[in-house]
Structure prediction request, 58 residues.
Amino acid sequence: MKALFRLALAAGVLPLAGCGSSAPVPGPVTSDEAQALDQAAEMLDSRPSDVPSDAATP
Prediction:
């Protein structure tokens, strides 16, 4: 009975082993690629938008 409990406990805990990874890079992307993507996103965010905001539309 103890063996079954230990097996069930291990089966419940093992999937959590991958949670909380210290690597901030999502998916199959190198850290250099992630940095380049972050820089591109910052550049796009800093550009003025030609599209009117929702508040400006009736």
Q: What stands out?
A: The mean pLDDT is 75.
